[in-house]
Amino acid sequence: MKILLILLVAFFAISVYAETKSVEVTVYNSGFGLVKEVRDMAFTKGMKNYGFEDVAALIEPQSVLFKSLTDPKSIEVYEQNYEYDLMNAKNILSKSVGKKVTCKDGVVGTLISAPGIGNASNAGLIVRTDDGKIMLYPSIEYITELPEGLIAKPTLNMMVYSEGDKTHDIELSYLTQGFNWNATYVVLLGADDTTCDLNGWVTVNNTCGTTYKNANLTLVAGDVNRVERGGRNKALGMAAAPGLVYDEAVQKVPNGFEEEGFFEYHLYKLPRNTDINSNETKQISLLQGSDVKITKKMTFTPHLRSQYFCLGFDNNPYASATSQNTKIPVLLEIENKEDNNLGMPMPKGTIKIYKKDKAGQEQFVGEDAIDHTPKDEKIKLKAGNAFDIVGEYKLTNYKRINNNTIEETYEVTIKNHKTEDATVYFYENTWGDWTVTKKDNDFNKIDAYTLEFPINVKADGSKTITYTIRTKY
Question: How many whole angstroms separate alpha carbon 72 and alpha carbon 210?
Answer without folding.
Answer: 28
